[in-house]
Write a structure and sequence with these properties.
mainly alpha; Clc chloride channel; CBS domain Like; 3 domains; 23 helices; globular; ion transport; transport; ClC-type_chloride_channel; chloride channel
Length: 506
């Protein structure tokens, strides 16, 4: 509703589904300047209220679930939600699911803090909030519940299933009371699959979709790196960056208004066969560029809706070629658009199960499940080899947060050595003389270091303990605070692994 009202004020229409058709009739300078104004507002917001000028998104929610007991940043989260609202209302080429998921996480964080919830309860509350938000946003109760478990919590523990399903159902009820329970996309006719003969084509579509998904993700990361380099070299203030991205996006939208907003209208055209082959190919390339500019320019928004549009266009282009080459054994070209939509989105999100169900629930077409599942499975398997499992996990990997490899890889980074070390006055403390000798040799740990940094040092030195110091700075000598024993580090790590396993299998 917020997007509709702000969009109506900027563009003169509150219909999100037909924004690009309406924008095509506006004066060129309005199409150019609207994203610039939105980008400038976003840049100033992020400059004033965040320390890094970055919009918080689904990746931060996944990090919160794994590392901070289901909590996320609240102040920066609210600012990010406002920034994404402005981006989506002013023509930003992103989606609404990222902001929706993150604002749900912010709400669950406030609740968890009020209840003083432990880590397990905090993560359960987070899962419930995310499931309800996704369900209310897309009218997709089954997919909303599975998205929360598959993407955010990254496990399917039995104790989380009931509350998450109830929350997801509640979100769907709210959606249907407000919007009537209609599907996002309407397909013109029943899709028919020539099962055994046509399945190899959907395997090939899965491969193509996996490559397209990887290109989309890498384009975003490349644009972000390019923006960082240009900003640093030119010495530009960070609030200028979203405005510059808005300028590029507006210039691209003048000949191609299809890139404005979430792209539901173009996605619907692809699913109903309303585009020609060359249009599907060109719109795919242009949309990838627009998404990369918007997200690389730090304007805000999510990546799910754009991946649906890119996937539908990719699938339609593939389907038009396949049905032209083999007209006697091929079904409808629109079936390929449906399968491609799921395949690209699943590869980007790293969520084959929930994405497959979202596609079914968004379209209301449950009869073509085999084609969608085949394409989704192949695309996800391929794209996960080209990036770190998914778009969100690759985002975290680029920040140094290694969640893709599982708890055994990231749990060490959750322990500061000061919380595990033995103080100098503790029973069975390390000999002080030996500690100073090791410090003199350069073998020590800063008290703010983590076990992730300590374990390689144990491996390298084969020491039983390593001194922990507080660095004095300047010419002041370090202060000896204690020593980290390898056995204590391993014990803390094993306990964390056991607790994680117990939660995931409870």
């Amino acid at each position: 509703m917020g997007i509709e009202r702000l969009q109506a004020w900027i563009y003169g229409t509150d219909d999100i589904l037909t924004l690009h058709s309406f924008a095509a009739g506006l004066d060129w300078y309005w199409v150019l300047l609207a994203p610039v104004a939105g980008g400038l507002a976003v840049g100033l917001l992020l400059h004033w209220f965040t320390d890094d000028g970055r919009v918080r998104s689904v990746a931060d929610v996944i990090e919160g679930a794994a590392l901070t007991e289901g909590r996320v940043e609240t102040k920066r989260g609210l600012v990010s939600a406002l920034a994404s609202l402005i981006t989506l209302s002013s023509g930003g080429s992103t989606g609404r699911e990222g902001p929706v998921v993150h604002i749900a996480a912010v709400i669950s964080t406030y609740v968890a803090r009020a209840l003083k919830a432990d880590g397990v309860t905090g993560r359960d509350l987070l899962g419930c909030a995310v499931a309800a938000a996704v369900s209310a946003s897309f009218n997709a109760p089954i997919a909303g519940a599975l998205f929360a478990m598959e993407v955010v919590l990254r496990h399917f523990a039995m104790h989380t299933f009931a509350p998450i399903v109830i929350a997801s159902a509640a979100g769907t009820v709210i959606n249907r009371l407000a919007y009537g329970g209609v599907t996002e996309f309407s397909l013109p006719a029943q899709n028919i699959l020539e099962f055994y003969v046509e399945l190899p084509a959907f395997l090939m579509l899965g491969l193509v979709s996996g490559v397209v998904a990887a290109v989309l993700m890498r384009a975003i990361f490349w644009t972000e790196d390019l923006g960082d380099a240009v900003q640093a070299r030119a010495g530009l203030p960070r609030w200028v960056r979203p405005a510059a991205a808005g300028l590029l996006l507006g210039a691209l939208a003048i000949p191609f208004p299809h890139v404005i907003g979430v792209g539901y209208e173009t996605t619907s055209l692809a699913l109903t066969g309303g585009l020609l082959l060359h249009e599907a190919v060109v719109f795919t390339v242009v949309k990838v560029a627009a998404v990369a500019i918007t997200m690389g320019g730090r304007m805000g928004g999510g990546v799910f809706s754009p991946s649906l549009m890119v996937g539908a266009l990719t699938g339609l282009a593939f389907g038009l070629m396949a049905t032209a080459v083999f007209p006697d054994v091929s079904g409808e070209g629109t079936l390929y658009a449906l399968a491609g939509m799921g395949a690209v989105a699943a590869a980007v999100l790293g969520a084959p199960i929930s994405t497959t169900l979202i596609v079914f629930e968004l379209t209301g077409d449950w009869q073509t499940g085999l084609a969608v599942m085949v394409s989704v499975s192949i695309s996800t398997a391929l794209a996960s080899r080209l990036v770190s499992r998914s778009f969100f996990l690759t985002q975290l990997e680029r920040r140094g947060v290694r969640l893709a490899a599982g708890p055994q890889a990231y749990l060490l980074g959750t322990f500061e050595v000061e919380s595990v070390m033995r103080g100098m006055e503790a029973p069975r403390a390390a000999p002080e003389e030996a500690c100073w000798a090791m410090i003199g040799e350069g073998t020590y740990l800063d008290r703010t270091a983590t076990l992730e940094q300590a374990m390689p040092l144990f491996e390298k030195t084969n020491a039983v303990f390593i001194p922990v110091v507080k660095l004095g700075g300047g010419d002041r000598p370090p202060q000896l605070r204690g020593a980290l024993f390898q056995v204590d580090a391993l014990r803390a790590y094993n306990r964390a692994l056991a607790a994680t396993a117990a939660e995931e299998h409870s």
